[in-house]
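Appendix C reproduces, verbatim, an entry submitted by the partner laboratory led by Prof. M.T., so that reviewers can inspect both the input and the predicted structure.
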Amino acid sequence: MDNMSFEELLNQTLKEIKVGQTVTGNIININSQGEIFVDLGYKADGIIPKSEFSYNESDDPKDMFKVGDRITADVLKLNDGLGNVLLSFKKANSKIVKQDFESKVKNNCTFTEKVTSVNDNGLVVDYRGIRIFIPLSLSAIPRDAKIEDYKGKTVTFRVIEYNEETRKIIGSIKVLLDEQKQAKEAEFWNNIEIGKMYKGTVTSLSSYGAFVDIDGVQGLLHISGMTWERDKKPEDIVKVGQEIKVKVQEFDKENKRLKLEYDKKGANPWDKFAEKYNVNDIVTVKVANLMPFGAFVKIDKGIEGLVHISQISEKRIAKPDEVLKVGQKVNAKIINIDLENKKVELSIRELEGTSNELVEENNDNMVNAENTEETVTAE
């Protein structure tokens, strides 16, 4: 100032400052109370109290500014009672923040901010002094979670409603998660191929199979895609929540349908059957199911054949259960093999009167033991 002319000093002294005006000056001191003193080129210095520095009380002026830095603030009073011009940095800064905020909202930008408070209706976050409300329905908080636990946590969201007049600002976490889910689904369907392997999680079971989630895409794992054995149920093979490997069997991109196959299903047993058995072979089988027209019998693991009612006995019978019962072990002769349609026809009747005739089980223990056998070999 020693080098300044009298005219410059006079102009400085006569410099006009009005309440509400935005002014800029050099910081000359930041004291231990967090007050900032500013040289405004005016007859009095300006002061920014700690309460007028930021809407966030935990913000420390010394973390953002140092002596010599230039700072912009709004004039609140020309005299704070101690001869200083009372200034507000947070008000001047809020104009800049508002412009920045509106630009981000317009461009669908995402925000990552800390939750300042919670209530029964949702979360409240603060963006540099701007209050944003995230309703519970848009918070993506699980139903069994406690909303109180989210206070102080950092969340990422997008502003989906902004009304400057009513100061209504609504944020949504859910909209971002939905977009991520859609992006994953799109990537999945764009790269899907028959035979491609995926890891998935079993989400539910039904009488005909299981539903498996693969990165947000639900696929059907039919019981026929789980096992070759007809007497198995889905719950015997997988459990809800279990992570499994599956292979794409069929898919329909347009209707978003996916059919899967379990990687533990194993090799096609019919391939081995063709090598192992021939027409006229005599095999020991177990009765798996009785129908009005005949009996289905288990030949090997995953291989069942039909004994038509006319092939059960030489004597005339009205129903298969007159002679057979489920779980019973019998000897039968293979009379036809249709590998293309995976069908095997057998006859018990042709063995009647031979050393390979019907085998009766003598006690329940033997029946139970036989029911646990996974394979039945030919005699």
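The domain at 108-176 is CATH 2.40.50.140 (OB fold (Dihydrolipoamide Acetyltransferase, E2P)). Additional entries are available on request from the coordinating office.
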